[in-house]
Amino acid sequence: MQPKNRIKLRIRHVRSTADYLIGKIKKPSSKNWIAIGDSLTSYDLTHNVAEGLHVVSKNLGFPGAKMSGPTDHLETLWLQVADGVPLNSDLVTIMAGTNDWNQGQPIGSLGDINTNTYLGAYQTLVKKIISQKRPRKLVLISPPYAEPNRSDRHIFQDGNYINHAGHSLEDYALAVRHLAEHLGVGFIDLYRLCGFQGNMHEFFATEDRIHPRQHGRDVLERLLVDNLRLF
Q: Residue 160 needs a FRET pair 20 to 30 A away by CA distance; which of 32, 116, 135, 170 works?
């Protein structure tokens, strides 16, 4: 009986090791990822990305939230969000701007302290996270391509939808790039990488023309995994 028991134990051990190597049993992650954003983040976009990166994620996405607004808007939403970021997080990402574009919020400029502008509010949030939370890596992500609801009064001009502040969504994406360069933090240009533009947009987006359907989610998740691995 004893030899048989030893053989069975060895077989179980080999199977366990094999399962571990092929990923059926995953090594527990000690790294965390804090994802800040609007509805594109809140609709559980982080789950599959976290699995691909082998990190533990915390989703701080809020549907309908825009980055800019009065000071009390910033204090009651985004600065409270910043308070929820753990100290010395391994990775913090911010992806917001679609609602700012859709609602016609002005972009502002680098160094702007006016929170009614996109860059003014964005810089305030980022600087608080850097100074108070000291994340090991901070990455800003431009919003992916989107089109306005058909009832919105955007002007289609030179291939872009222009809001009543005179900005296209691409302008907000460029603002995020410039902010990341200005602050010396990471940047992912999801707007250009996603490939949702043109005739393919209806294939990737839901009827509201902003949120991705499953095809679009798959693309965004793959892009985030591939690009976040670089930081």
A: 116
